[in-house]
Structure prediction request, 834 residues.
Amino acid sequence: MTSLLIRNVVHNQKQTDVLIENNTFSRIAPNLNTRTDNVIDGSGKAILPGFYNTHSHAGMSVFRGISDDKELFSWLHDDIWPREARLTSDIIYHATKFSILEMIKTGTVFFADMYFEPQVILKAAAEMGIRVAASHSALDLFDCARCEQEKRKTDAYLNCPHPCPEITAKVLTIHAVYSASPELIRYTTETARKNNMYLHIHACETQKEVDDCLSQNGCTPIEYLDRLGALNEKTILAHAIFLNDRDIELLSRKKVRLCTNPVSNYKLASGVFQFQKLLEKGCIITLGTDSMASNNNLSMLEEMKLCALSAKIQSMNPTAGAAEEVFKIATRNGAEAFGLNAGIIAEGKLADCILVDLNNHFLVPNYNLISNMVYSADSSCIDTVICNGKILMQNHHILGEEEITAKIKELSEMFRN
Amino acid sequence: MTSLLIRNVVHNQKQTDVLIENNTFSRIAPNLNTRTDNVIDGSGKAILPGFYNTHSHAGMSVFRGISDDKELFSWLHDDIWPREARLTSDIIYHATKFSILEMIKTGTVFFADMYFEPQVILKAAAEMGIRVAASHSALDLFDCARCEQEKRKTDAYLNCPHPCPEITAKVLTIHAVYSASPELIRYTTETARKNNMYLHIHACETQKEVDDCLSQNGCTPIEYLDRLGALNEKTILAHAIFLNDRDIELLSRKKVRLCTNPVSNYKLASGVFQFQKLLEKGCIITLGTDSMASNNNLSMLEEMKLCALSAKIQSMNPTAGAAEEVFKIATRNGAEAFGLNAGIIAEGKLADCILVDLNNHFLVPNYNLISNMVYSADSSCIDTVICNGKILMQNHHILGEEEITAKIKELSEMFRN
Prediction:
């Protein structure tokens, strides 16, 4: 057994000690007289849950800032897709590590990813020590031969060794209703159900997606996914912007998890997530950053702030998107969506947490720490990140960060043109 | 004469030296062989203009996080105003220094402030070395006796010694059309004109302000201010959300400077600034953070990001609010609005600048530094801040920052209830 003691840290406005044994918070009480393998001095710091980023494309970090302020079609066709065609496993590996570096710097302990080469993503996450849910993203463009290939890739993923199974959430991924055939959606859904896995899908990101589905299938993407058996409490739908009342009722009743990505939705001018309405209708919301190509960073702090601000302006009601609610969405709701017994600091929960510096100007005055985290904090406030009982960052430093960043500077040269 | 040489810094994608003599960039060229009083190693860093924050209430920093997610009326009446009544000159002084600390940490070199006790604000700015435009904020609530008092306060401000005149922009301030009588607006406007001063006014922040003005005066706040002679190219209007086409034409023709405060406008659910339309109509836009009570930080980096994102989602057009345009608004436009020959890095310009760390993960890859500053950077990227030729922050550290922050922690205790 490994053990770690965090001494004199602020938890719920009181100073306490926090004992981590193996990967679990085992005791939270003042003045614990325990001999442990490792001790962190928590004085001047507060302990909070880390963030659970439920939608990202970590391999796209080599494209940050390469194309902005463009129409979606031109952005994808002229700038992103031609460069994605030049990606290799090796580049995706380094790009994913770099994304994870930025996630840890900003307090994230888990990410659900959707990209190519799941084995490479899992390897990068295992090396960095962060929790991950990543698999092959099933996409056949309604081509029968390709559908069969995609099924084989999904099968292969099931049998692949996970480099660090204790921090890996089991997931299968479907790209979207406009890019995956009903046959592929059915197969992937059924495979996930049989293997007790989560299912991660892009849904209702644009009005066009909804209009096309209505004209081709006579129903919305939500109804279509439901007909194919894809909607249940283990399903995570990314974006979920364009939903009608029937969709919302269905999503609420089936306890489907929604992932909102406000920065990306604003930057691409996709549309505005119906935050307050969905909350009132009982839908379960989680938060994600999407990729560096459409954000352009992976900070859940910035994502929380826009999530709150967007909810207020959308409803012209400053009480919407309250800080406590948004913080819960970014932590506990994200953990629960992937079946993790985590997201709050309590005995018996998985030992995922961050320590924030209470002397950092962004956290002063400290009338309400959660308000400060949602509306004021940036990465400079995050001192320490612990995931599954292991220290990933301490005193703002991650082991090997200089090399990981230098590698991306080098690799990015080949994508300049 | 004092001199400062910044060696081997990236400027416009090329490595160069930058020579500052007194308060001016005097030479920008590689390999300057000059003996100077001080040398900064700029390697691994880029030089950029600092930010010009054209609307703030720095004294409100003691209220960060004390009241969020509330209706405007309850926020002001129940939480903010009763506490403002307890402010003293001493508290405003320390609170303003603390706000300036956060501004410098996030790359700001100038702020236009609107609060009580201008002498105290000017003193705090002089001690921290940041440029400022602050004066008594004229407000009489249509009370004749109070109007006369307010005029005397404006006169007193004219004759008050400025602790650091070389970094002070001369400004007079009118609170708003709903809080200042026409007599007071006329007097302040005329005084500003006679003394060649700038004029800073809250305008059209809420629909109610416009509706009330229409019913009381038969015209919009913009037309009303124009009738009182308050609109010209030395006028800065904060918020300026609710504008009709005639207002916009007037503001464009008279070269009035608008200051948008997107975070505050979203947080209070006031409304959305018509960014792209105003730009297309030839209006001149600048950027401000408003106060820590409605933001809740003073980061122009976060303000730029929401400014860009808001422009896109408002027009449902991802090409709106382009990074280069938003960066210009936050730098050059703000400097020009207050008559400062600054806001760009060029020989002959005032030596205001920041050095950003090109090895910081948020700035990697570096395809487009301006995109990275608008969409990705946070305070951790800002290494050095120079204002008027003087170093205000180096290696992320500001002289005395621990004491300034500790003082606010102490003072904030008295506002808790």
User: Anything to note?
Assistant: The first strand of chain A starts at residue 3 and ends at 11.
